[in-house]
Amino acid sequence: MANIKSQIKRIKTNAKATERNRAHKAEVRTFMRKFRQAAASGDVEATETALRAASRKLDKAVSKGVMHKNQAANKKSAMAKKAASV
């Protein structure tokens, strides 16, 4: 454990940010899993709804700094391609 006061504060701040980021990433993964399940079921309406929800969550993660914008764009592109093939 650090002895310097500012470093102790940084450790606490980083721990909070890590927990927050972990929660956001888990939520994004959940929505992406729901999209994959909807696409696998073959239901076009459910797939489109799940795609919109997952895309929204990805954009939110980017705006919060949890995920890089290019990574989110790649995931959204792959999901849109999958949705188009359903």
Automatic annotation (TrEMBL):
Compositionally biased intervals (Low complexity): 69-86
Domain of life of the organism encoding this protein: Bacteria
Full protein name: Small ribosomal subunit protein bS20
Similarity remark: Belongs to the bacterial ribosomal protein bS20 family.
InterPro entries named among the record's database cross-references: Ribosomal_bS20, Ribosomal_bS20_sf
One GO cellular component, as annotated: ribosome
Keywords: Ribonucleoprotein, Ribosomal protein, RNA-binding, rRNA-binding
One Pfam family it belongs to: Ribosomal_S20p
Record region (Disordered): 1-23, 59-86
Encoding gene per record: rpsT
Species assigned in the record: Ornithinimicrobium cryptoxanthini
Function: Binds directly to 16S ribosomal RNA.
